[in-house]
From TrEMBL:
Belongs to the NAD(P)-dependent epimerase/dehydratase family. Pfam families: Epimerase. Residues 3-237 form the NAD-dependent epimerase/dehydratase domain. This is SDR family oxidoreductase. InterPro entries: Epimerase_deHydtase (IPR001509), NAD(P)-bd_dom_sf (IPR036291). Signal peptide: none annotated. PANTHER family: DTDP-D-GLUCOSE 4,6-DEHYDRATASE-RELATED.
């Protein structure tokens, strides 16, 4: 089968492309990316296994003509491309709207006239807004940031395709863990970097806000298994942990005793969000949490050069 991955050169995309290239059922993987993050790690460090399957197309989501051309003969589309800036999810609303909202709309328009059979869209738990109680998929979206609003609008466009093709919306938690194309603005990755090299962490607010998380290996496994695993059209939470920001700091402090941390605007109570783990969905895709958070941090830090 032939697959397109929008945002295929990004954090999640890089790991997914490697996994798809190893799948004997996959004949071609097209990476569709505008390289706006200036991250070229997918393309370097030697040939990936089965590299002849992989093709790169530099393109924009708003280029409807190019999108339609790329979708010719494609059976599955992974829509990962998005404007993401953590923790500044309330800045630059124009770009969030252009990419996450209208870019997704252009892709949906192109898909409506295509022969694609399955669309997997990586949305975000940020569409829920905030909640002290763990939310599940039955809770109506109530985003509190420009980023969350744009992802919710993207979901609305994607949902229109439900009668035409198998459409799977994954509301992903904050992604963390090592990847050659990793993001260092994501909270756990940022803390791990600061702790390892600076021995000092900066915490915004009082650190008592909850966030939902999913490890990069777990999201890679879930996405790659959707090639052959039958999942009904719908919305699914893809998270494996809810952690306090201070839980992350405490674990790093255990591993690096000399670690210091400072608070910025400690008097502010920042937005928090708990998301209920969808065990049925995770089990169906073989997503396990057999490693402790402490073990994951140790493995992550072992990837640092010094």
């Amino acid at each position: 089968m032939k697959i397109v991955v929008t945002g295929g050169a990004g954090y999640i995309g890089t790991e997914l492309v490697y996994a798809l290239a190893q799948n004997a059922e996959v004949k071609e993987v097209i990476v569709y990316d505008n390289l706006s993050r200036a991250n070229h790690n997918l393309f370097i460090n030697g040939k990936m296994p089965n590299y002849e399957k992989v093709k790169f197309v530099k393109g924009e989501l708003l280029d409807s003509r190019q999108l339609k051309k790329v979708l010719e003969g494609v059976e599955i589309v992974y829509h990962l491309a998005a404007k993401v800036t953590t923790p500044f999810a309330n800045t630059d609303p124009h770009f969030y709207e252009q990419v996450n909202h209208w870019g997704t709309a252009e892709l949906v328009y192109a898909l409506e006239s295509s022969d694609v059979q399955k669309l997997i869209y990586t949305s975000s738990t940020s569409v829920y807004g905030s909640s002290k109680k763990a939310v599940d998929e039955s809770v109506s979206p109530n985003p509190k940031t420009f980023y969350g609003i744009s992802k919710m609008r993207g979901e609305e466009h994607v949902s229109r395709l439900g009668d035409k093709m198998n459409t799977i919306i994954l509301r992903c938690g904050n992604v963390y863990g090592y990847s050659k194309s990793m993001r260092f603005d994501a909270v756990i990755n940022k803390f791990a970097f600061e702790a390892n090299f600076n021995k000092k962490i900066t915490i915004h607010g009082d650190g008592r806000q909850y966030r939902s998380f999913v490890h990069i290996d777990q999201i890679k496994a879930a996405l790659s298994r959707l090639v052959t695993t039958e999942v009904n059209t719908g919305v699914y939470n893809l998270v494996t942990r809810d952690l306090l920001v201070l839980d992350i700091v405490d674990e790093l402090k255990q591993q690096i005793p000399e670690l210091e941390f400072i608070f910025v605007n400690q008097h502010l109570k920042l937005r928090e969000l708990k998301v209920k783990v969808n065990n049925e969905f995770n089990d169906k895709l073989g997503i396990t949490t057999d490693k402790s958070f402490a073990q994951e941090l140790v493995e992550f830090r072992n990837h640092f050069s010094f």
